[in-house]
Automatic annotation (TrEMBL):
GO terms for biological process: nervous system development. It comes from Oncorhynchus kisutch (Coho salmon). Pfam families: RAWUL (PF16207), zf-C3HC4_2 (PF13923). The keyword Metal-binding applies. Gene3D superfamilies: Phosphatidylinositol 3-kinase Catalytic Subunit, Chain A, domain 1, Zinc/RING finger domain, C3HC4 (zinc finger). PROSITE patterns: ZF_RING_1, ZF_RING_2. This is Polycomb group ring finger 5a. It comes from the Eukaryota. Residues 18-56 form the RING-type domain. The gene is LOC109870409. It is found in: Nucleus.
Amino acid sequence: MATQRTPLVKDFNHFITCYLCRGYLIKPTTVTECLHTFCKSCIIQHFEDSNDCPKCGIQVHETNPLEMLRLDNTLEEIIFKLVPGLRDKEEQQEINFWRKNKSKENGQGDCLGSRLGLSDDEDGDEDGQDYHRSDPQIAICLDCLHNNGHAADDTVKCLMKKFLRCSSRVTVGTIKKFLSLKLKLSSSCELDVLCNGEIMGKDHTLEFIYMTRWRLHGDNTYPMVLEYRPRIDFG
């Protein structure tokens, strides 16, 4: 009786490697229109120049293909189990990346990263073990909502990159600080953050907003859209 060969990792490479970079899928992200999966960073970079799937050529979205992406956490866990040491390697590379780049934006990179669960300074343990990786993650889109005729509109601009992925425990207050730093706003310029036209409290978490404002109002699109605007003074 022939002995059955034990499957090797390379036997599954077709299913767990990225079509774009040819490496193992990191943060595997699926295009919902055709169900092809790529590394998150690879497909986002591809969509900067094209609205088509790089594998099959189908048009993913006419204007914003990022709306048609879904992170596949189950596949990510399978890959980490199949490939020994891959999880530790990727986590260390990401930590090194943020350490190297945290000072880029006028010295504010460390604050921006740590507030959104990306850095290792403010919210992590001293030994560098906690980087919000155990938190549920959520994707959001930050859109600028202008108030017609208000002078403050001139100081509040649209973000260059409005799509973010961060811990679901991040609060509206943290989002406001992130926006103030990114947009280089003065301390006197206050912002409101809205979901479906309703101003959100500074202590609301993204998870709370998603469960009580976004999902329950029939908005099943992804990511969750939050709007920001200069605070209106009714005095």
